[in-house]
Amino acid sequence: MGRNVSRSSLARANGDRDYHIFEAYAYYLVNEARQKRVTDIFKLGGNVYAFDSTTIDLCLSVFWWAKFRKKKGGIKVHTLYDVETQIPASFHIIEASVHDSKAMNEIPYESGSYYIFDRAYNNFKMLYRIHQIGAYFVVRAKKNLQYMPIKWKHRLPKNVFSDMTIGLTGFYPKQYYPEPLRLVRYWDEEQKREFVFLTNATHISALQVAELYKKR
């Protein structure tokens, strides 16, 4: 070619191209990078993912379709992060006004893998879907969670206040997740606060449940 291509020319050229080409290539590179950094920190026999969102503010007069608040625009970037390789596995972008839990439907779930969520993702319909495909989740419970204790563990390790099997009692939650769940109450010495986790992983210890969340 012999000449540099200006950014404006490149932008115009890319404007006529299907973005799926770049998306597919990006995910190819991500997968290659993950394979180079394969580790097994948790010794659980499956991949460990954390899922969370970041809100990016946008100028509403330019990005009119991204209305977030009365005078503010924005989008949310949901990232599925491979905790062990420390490389993002996938991204999903939606309007900032959409609740975080709606994006759970976009995750490419894998049987045998672990998915770590914060409180915004107490979507019991989606959590039950994770359970049904043979994957596992750890999610922080909301403070207003309605449940009934079924069975307790009496011998508990340090900093674990309780480890019990529960049934959900809320009208919709018990319909969306009709099977028992595990609830773990854990005291974090570093932050000097209590965390309450819900999980379907009954085969790991309560400390492993807490450690999964801490590493997210």
TrEMBL record:
All copies of domain Transposase IS4-like, residue ranges: 46-216
BP GO terms, sorted: DNA transposition
UniProt keyword list: DNA recombination, DNA-binding, Transposition
GO MF assignments: DNA binding; transposase activity
Coiled coil feature spans: none
InterPro entries: RNaseH-like_sf, Transpos_IS4, Transposase_11
PANTHER family: TRANSPOSASE INSL FOR INSERTION SEQUENCE ELEMENT IS186A-RELATED (PTHR33258:SF1)
Membership in a protein family: Belongs to the transposase 11 family.
Protein name: Transposase IS4-like domain-containing protein
The organism of origin for this protein: Bacteroides uniformis dnLKV2
